[in-house]
């Protein structure tokens, strides 16, 4: 575990620089919070004039403090901070909790850099600046101006928004969902989200990591750090509706919004993405109390048919559709219900269900191998007591001794149900006031299990490539002052990375064109090659279905004439002669180099699917072979690849291999390539492979 970060987040000895005797000032509040929180490892207020604050001796400088200090909370105006940093460094402080605002968030970028440089020169780390502070229940540490320590819990939150952290602090009590640590991360000048994820993964009091993110600085490191984590991570990302900072020079560029790219990154990181604040809380509750749902079989026990049906609907949307329980399982349930109950799934114990029936069926369901996850629903009735039902569930769970199978619950009723649910949560069983939420929570536990498998799948770096050829082409394009590669150049790079490009070559004369065509066989496609003509068809620069030598010669001349008429001063490299690929299912693969995550890879079906329906999926490159296969199944139009209207299934294996090789190419050349497309890629029947018909690469400026 990183010692310096531990000094910062679980300090032994803490100074408050800018401590004030004046109530209402942040420097006063922090001292008061440390005292009220019960922190016992040494509080040292620092102030040039005061003698005593809230009963604590005040020092003029950290250098005057006789005891060791791990962390200093900085609550003085920005212009005085540097001097204090120096003194903290000389004192041997490990970490600075810089509450002060007035740094990069208001354009003072250099001041912030200087703060970090100075801190690092003493081996210190910086949390902030521009933060609320940091809180830890297990250390009784409220080193912040948030009003109190949160309700005790086993999840820890890292928040880029200070105000939201304060709000969540209060919500922990009203929602009854506790946290151990609340860490405000502000400008992330030094300690960033990836650092805290790495540290919390080692923190013994944290069982689940909850993140509120506005923007990441080093996306790839974030993914790697999360992927290493052995604890569940749930993340709420704000600002997914706005378009990413990518100029849309290609199809892929126009589709690569923050929602897609961040969503992909979270999935690869193995992090569950929450849809809103409520969802963040609900998922945190499930993930911090329950194990993942490792198989697909969900069982629901209920005393009400209505909530059972509602939950059945929700299960389908949550990705865990219900199946009927096997006969043997049903027979056992029948022993604990009247004849008019239902032992299928949902198991409807009917409104007559009392403590014993809930106890017996819960115990049996949890113990049975067929059941991978259990949801218990209860509607408040006049013949039952919600608290006793809750206790029956708890006792059943205890008696089975099972800890690797998840359970979630929903009690629908009034105050008595609310109290019972609070009791369940306090005793480690997630409870929600709506059956849909209990199902969603189970869906989250299932998603967690699925993501674990995905994030552990290895990336294949064993592709045979000719990197030097690609680099030579790129160098040549740059030497000519271009960033856009011609089709021939783009295709040559694709070929160098082993991608199945249709056979094609550049002809600079009619005779050459004929020779190439005869070596490929008819029919043939011919296209103009010019860095000045991007939209070849509009310029009359494309001829298809050419079937003889005479047609080749004629097409050669027509294309040249059309191109010159379209743009008289266009530089013309020649004419591309290309085998005409037979019809196949059209797909598209593309990439943009994202400012946060670097090269990304996109997949979709071609034509209207990408243009109108925008049915595409993104990942951050490179990707594992397993991720490539999952990408093919992740689009809405996925069934088309499995064969529709009498067509046989398409060669998904070959397509996934192309995706994986392409992702490798764009990450291997990530420092050069800004955007790229392979469009269309024609996919044939199983065993017949795929062909990339057109390819495009645009270099970084
Ligand atoms: N060492 C120790 N104490 C010092 C000092 C130094 N080098 N320089 C000044 N102080 C003392 C001051 O004398 C004052 O104490 P006093 O009340 O006894 O006079 C105290 O530190 C605070 O300084 P002051 O000038 O009164 O500042 P302030 O309390 O008005 O504001 C901040 C200080 C840090 C709170 C303010 O600059 C700020 O950044 N506010 C925004 C915080 C925020 O919102 N963060 C982000 C949340 S999301």
TrEMBL record:
GO molecular function: acetate-CoA ligase (ADP-forming) activity; ATP binding; metal ion binding
Native source species: Candidatus Brevifilum fermentans
Organism lineage: Bacteria, Bacillati, Chloroflexota, Anaerolineae, Anaerolineales
Keyword Acetylation among UniProt keywords: no
Keywords: ATP-binding, Ligase, Nucleotide-binding
Keyword Metal-binding: no
Protein name: Putative Acetyl-CoA synthetase
ATP-grasp domain ranges (all copies): 491-527
Family: In the N-terminal section; belongs to the acetate CoA ligase alpha subunit family.
Organism domain of life: Bacteria
